[in-house]
User: Fold this.
Amino acid sequence: MEPYSLTLAAELVGTAVFAASGASAAVAKRLDMFGVVVIGAITALGGGAMRDVLIDAPPLVLADWRYAAVAVLAAVAVFFFHPALSRLRIAMLVLDAAGLALFTVVGTAKGIDYGLAVYAACIVGVLSGVGGGILRDVLTREIPVVLRADFYALAAAVGSVIVAAGARWESQIGAFTLSAIATAAIFVVRLVAIKYRWQAPKPNL
Assistant:
């Protein structure tokens, strides 16, 4: 499979996972079917849309109907099958980590392609990975998980720095290899943080 096709397939899987995450939160809040679909779609597509607005690029969700279609279908599936999906918590966490990794890496690379400085591309990349979750939590009246969870944004930051800092050597190591290294770094850090319950320091009260 060509790298582009592999990236597209992985992005669509990540879109479905993030949509399922948002839809699950909406189900927990007892929203109706429309609310579940809206929250699911915003969670899946919000980060990428925010990224594209920041770099002044045409929003991908408006250019390719497949992303919106996958997000809506995943949210509808959660609405009807949420009792069964609730038993797949570990699998969902693994898929969520994969989605976070891929969206962050793609977002950072896109920022570099649009001529952003390293630090700006990292910001755009992290926002691409966590932005949808922030919108989900705000709409469901929760403290955003990115502000309280175990190494969520920090895991994304690790990968975005690898992509942005390694861009100057991309011609030597290859774009696909660089992206794979960064994706693996985010994925591993996130899963290790979950397993060992790593958390950033919190104030003593």
About this structure: The two ends are 53 Å apart (CA to CA). The chain is about 80% helix and 0% strand. The mean pLDDT is 88. The CA atoms of residues 34 and 111 lie 33 Å apart.
